[in-house]
Amino acid sequence: MEQSQVSSGLVARVVLIIAAVVGLLYFVYLARQVVGLLVVAVFFAIAITPAVNWIERRRVPRWAAILLVYLAIAASIFGIGLLLVPPLVSGVESLSQDLPGYVQDLRNNETFKEYDNRYHITDKLEQQAEELPSKLGQAAGTLQDVTVGVFSRFVELFALLVISFFLVRDGERMLGWGYRQLSPERAERARTVARDISDAIAGYVFGNFAISVLAGLVTYITLLILDVPFRVPLAIMFGFFDLIPLVGATIGGILVGIVVAFVNFPTGLIVWAAVLIGYQQLENHLIQPVVYGRAVQLHPLIVIVAILIGGSLLGVLGALLAIPAAAAVQAVVRDWWRYTRGEGALAIDQPP
After folding, report:
1. Within the chain, what is the greatest distance between any pair of CA atoms?
2. How far apart are CA 306 and CA 296, in angstroms?
3. H helices present in 108-183, as ranges
4. Is 16 among the domain residues?
5. Is 270 in the same domain as 345?
6. Do the Cβ atoms of 317 and 332 come closer than 8 Å?
7. Are 267 and 294 in contact (CB under 8 A)?
8. Closest by CA position to 39, among listed 346, 320, 236
9. What tens-digit pLDDT sequence spans the chain (352 residues)?
10. Straight-line distance from the first to the last Cα atom of the chain, in angstroms, rounded to the nearest whole number
11. Is 343 among the domain residues?
12. Which domain covers residue 54, as residue numbers?
C-alpha cells in the first residue's frame, strides 16, 4: 500500500515537472521576440562594459560613462554614414549621366543584337516601362510596410538601449544578489562561469573588430593599386560588412566589385575577385581561427559549426551571437567537468 502511494506520488511529481517544463517552453515560444531582445541586450551590455569601466575609472559617474559610450557608438555610425553617402550619391549621379552611353554601346554590340533578335530583350524592357505607372500603387504599399517596419525596429532599438543601460549600471549588484542566494562553493562556481563568459564576449568583440579593420586595410590597398575612386568609404563599407561572420565579406565584396566593374572592367574586376577570394580563404582558415582561438578559446571546428547553427536559426543575428553563445556553453560545460572531477572543490579549499 505504501509502495503504491510512493510510486503514485513520484509519477505525479514527474508529470507536474514535465508539464511545467512544457509550459515554460511554450511561454518562451510565445515571447520569443522579447526573449531574443533580452539576449541581444545582455550581449551588448557585456560587450560595452569594459569601455564603461575604463571611463568610470576616470572619475566619471557610471550612468554618464554609459551615455558617453552610446554617444561614441552613434558618432561612429554617423561618421561612417558621412563617409559613405556622399560618394555613393556622386557615383549614382555619374552613373545616371553615363548610362545612355552604356546603353548605346550595348546596342552597337553584335552579340547583344543577336540575343535581342532572339529573345526580344528590348521589347520586354519597353513593355515593363509601360507597365511602370500601374505598379506605383504597389510600390506605395510596399513603402508603407517598410516605413512601419523601420519604426518598429526603432522602438526595438530604443528598448534594447534602455535594457542594456540598466544591465550595465546595475548588473554587478544583480549578480551580487544572486551570488548571495547560493552556498559559498556554488557562488564561487557561478562567479567563475560568469567571468569566463564575460571575457569570451569581450574577446570576441575585440577580435571581430580587429579582423574587420584588417579586411578594410586589405580592401583599401587593393583599390589604391587599381586606382578606384572613393577608396576610403568603400574600404570602410567592406570592413563594416566583414563584422558579419561567414557571409559579411561576400556581401561587401560584391558591393565593392560592382563599383570596381564600372571603373576598371574587366582587369580591375578580375584582380578584385582574386584578392577577395584569396583574402576570404586566408581569413576563414588562418586569421579567424588564430584570433578567436586566443580571444574566445574555442576550437575552429566549434566556431564554424556554431555560426552555421546560429545562422540557420536566427539569420544574421544568430551568426553574430553564435560564437559568444558557444563560449558560454563551453564555460558551463568546463565548470561541470571540473567540479564533477573534484578539481574545483580542491581549488576553493586551498588557501590563496
Report:
1. 98
2. 13
3. 110-119, 121-131, 136-180
4. no
5. yes
6. no
7. no
8. 320
9. 555 555 666 677 777 888 888 888 888 778 777 887 888 888 888 888 888 999 999 889 999 999 999 999 888 878 777 776 666 666 556 655 655 555 555 556 666 566 666 666 656 655 554 554 555 455 445 444 444 454 566 777 888 889 899 989 988 888 888 888 888 888 888 888 888 888 888 888 888 888 999 999 999 998 888 888 778 888 888 888 888 766 778 888 888 887 787 777 677 778 888 888 888 888 877 787 778 777 777 777 787 788 778 877 777 677 777 888 888 888 888 888 887 776 544 343 333 3
10. 55
11. yes
12. 24-90+148-181
Q: Which amino acid is at 235?
A: A
Name the packing angle between helices 62-107 and 248-263 (round to 10°).
40
Instruction: Please name the residues in contact with 188: beta carbons below 8 A apart, sequence gap of 6 or more.
Output: 344, 348
Contact yes or no for 52/62 (Cβ under 8 A): yes
Look up residue 103 and give its three cell numbers.
546603353
**Region of residue 59 (left: phi > 0; alpha: psi -120 to 50; beta: else):** left
The one-letter amino acid at 48: I
Cell numbers of 299, please? 576550437
Q: What is residue 109's DSSP assignment?
A: -
Same domain, 200 and 82: no
Q: Do residues 160 and 226 share a domain?
A: no
**Do residue 309 and residue 349 come from a single domain?**
yes
Q: Which residue reads 515593363 in cell numbers?
A: 128
For residue 61, cis peptide bond before it (omega within 30 degrees of 0): no
Are both 176 and 258 inside the same structural domain? no
